[in-house]
Amino acid sequence: VAMDSRHLLLRHGGNRWQVAARLGCRPQDLLDASASLVPFGPPASLSGSLGRALRTPAITAYPDRSHATLREALASHHQLPVEMLLPGNGAAELFTWAARDAAGVGVNVLPEPGFADYGRALACWGASATGWNAMPGAGLPIRHGEAGAGVAVSGQVLWICNPHNPTGQLWRRQLLLPLLQSFRLLICDEAFLPLVPGGEDCSLLPLVPHHPNLVVIRSLTKLLAVPGLRLGYAAAQPERLQRWSQWRDPWPMNGLAAAVAPVALADGRWRRRVQAWVATEGPWLRTQLAALEGLEPFPSAANFLLLRGAASLEPLREHLEQHERVLLRSCSSFKGLGARWLRVGLQDRAGNRRLLRAMRRSLRALSRG
Ligand SMILES: Cc1ncc(COP(=O)(O)O)c(C=O)c1O
Question: What residues flank ligand 1, with Cβ below 6 Å?
Answer without folding.
Answer: 90-92, 115, 161, 165, 189, 191, 219, 221, 227, 232
